[in-house]
């Protein structure tokens, strides 16, 4: 019974550590998320700034996974090339080593858990403010406190092998098999990281196990190497149902870390000897013979591995890009445009980052709407060609079904985001997105309705003369302008206040032209210059186009409400 309680306490301590890490990371991202994204997009001019950017951002938000998510979203949006993304990922690997130093310097040498309860009190005080930013700061402080409180419980709940040598003594037996033991613990580190979904948590466990005397220095170093592989497998699992860019970025991360582990294992003894010399040179004791500097030595392994690996592979970035592009080939079929591109891999590390994925998917949705109206124009111009019109009508119907599906999938994703915590700005975006996808789905319905009106016209043997087709083409030109203005505003409007005069002008032009065509049509009916039934279909098409203009302006107006 005592063993079960001890195991549950250990799991609870680990859960508290992980929750604290998540809360701190999410709070930091909410406080500085937009600024971090701005830095990430600006500081990627060369290899050095890419690595530096990845290092700094990961060191700040304490999550290489969150940094990788931002990188992938920028690659998807076309703001970063895969080459730039690889450089930032390398930097993120260096940045994630800050966690191990934080734990080594504060978590073991000083009992920071004494400050945890007062810090939670300070964090709670911040949470009482109405300001979303102050609440996020409160989250960050409470997360920091819980992280070290969890670490303290983790240390205290781990069995003391010197007092209870029978408890988990099998782990010590695994350390006596020479280089095979090294490989076993590389695998242990990999599997633990995949299970815990956090390399930071596995590093903390490794530091605890080493500090308690469970494992010697060389075994702890092997676990650190495995953790570097495990964190990339987690990213690959997340990207497995994602788009091509996500898969390539995740695979580049794997190539980078696996190559590093291979060369370090090939030079394992010299590598650890160098680490020991560095620790001794900085005033510590030899980690092979003394446990006093063991924690610093393990953190040095983690840091030296990532820095050295980056210094070697940064020169081979183009080759890594070529390799992952060759392994993961792009889709050549047109059907790819009909699939969700940005939210297939599920929720990201925070609701705020997930919103960014939804933004990109909505832009993709706008592109699909634009393509539908290319076919709508062709259907108007080729309505008298039965075979050609049937093909175009099927495409319009297909696009309408796609619009329905995409609206449903984005709405489902937004529902999941709504369950998380969002800043006030994030909530504004969320509400606007619901309205936007509804309006865009209506645009998809209107595109199909244009096809149905033309189909009914053909069934009744009606044909438009050349002047009528010309007028409809001009109306579709105005619709194209409205969709272009909507798309431009979508590209700009989620992050800053925008001027939607372009959309207002486009909608005004549509309404004005619609009014002119109505007056002209009424005069023609009175003078019996056109067939009544043909005129009905003509005005139905004009009205449907005018409705599209209304939907487009509604999207831009929803964007204004965000800010």
UniProtKB/TrEMBL annotation:
GO CC terms, sorted: plasma membrane
Protein name: Na/Pi cotransporter family protein
GO biological process: sodium-dependent phosphate transport
UniProt keyword annotations, A-Z: Cell membrane, Membrane, Transmembrane, Transmembrane helix
Cellular compartments annotated: Cell membrane
PANTHER family in the cross-refs: SODIUM-DEPENDENT PHOSPHATE TRANSPORT PROTEIN 2B, SOLUTE CARRIER FAMILY 34 SODIUM PHOSPHATE , MEMBER 2-RELATED
InterPro entries to which the protein is assigned, alphabetical: Na/Pi_transpt (IPR003841), NaPi_cotrn-rel/YqeW-like (IPR004633), PhoU-like_sf (IPR038078)
Record organism: Candidatus Coprenecus avistercoris
Topology relative to the membrane: Multi-pass membrane protein
One MF term in the entry's GO annotations: sodium:phosphate symporter activity
One Pfam entry name: Na_Pi_cotrans
Membrane-spanning parts: 112-129, 136-154, 174-196, 255-274, 294-316
Keyword Cell membrane: yes
Xref: Gene3D superfamilies: Phosphate transport system protein phou homolog 2, domain 2 (1.20.58.220)
